[in-house]
Amino acid sequence: MAFLVANETGAPPIWVKGKILEMGSSGISSLGSHNERRTQCLDDFASVYGHMPLVSTNVKAIDSRSTWLW
C-alpha cells in the first residue's frame, strides 16, 4: 500500500505511533533471510512501478490528546 500511495501522491510517508505487539525473537524479521527477501521484494515492486516511489522523510505524527509535546 505504501508504494501505491507514494506513487500516486509523490508525498513522503509519515510515522504514526501505534500500539506494538511484541513478537520477541520469533518475529518475521528474526529469520536469517529476512533482509535479503525484503530487499528483493522492494526491488520487485520498484521494477513493477518503473521507479522507486518511496522517498525519505523525517515527519512523524503522534496523538497529542494524551502526550505533552513541550
TrEMBL record:
Keywords, in A-Z order: Disulfide bond, Transferase
GO cellular component terms listed in the entry, alphabetical order: membrane
Pfam families hit by this protein: Glyco_transf_64
InterPro entries per UniProt: GT64 (IPR053318), GT64_dom (IPR015338), Nucleotide-diphossugar_trans (IPR029044)
Classification via Gene3D superfamilies: Spore Coat Polysaccharide Biosynthesis Protein SpsA, Chain A
Domain Glycosyl transferase positions: 1-63
Alphabetized GO MF terms: glycosyltransferase activity
Family the UniProt entry places it in: Belongs to the glycosyltransferase 64 family.
PANTHER family linked: GLYCOSYLINOSITOL PHOSPHORYLCERAMIDE MANNOSYL TRANSFERASE 1
Protein name: Glycosyl transferase 64 domain-containing protein
UniProt source species: Vanilla planifolia (Vanilla)
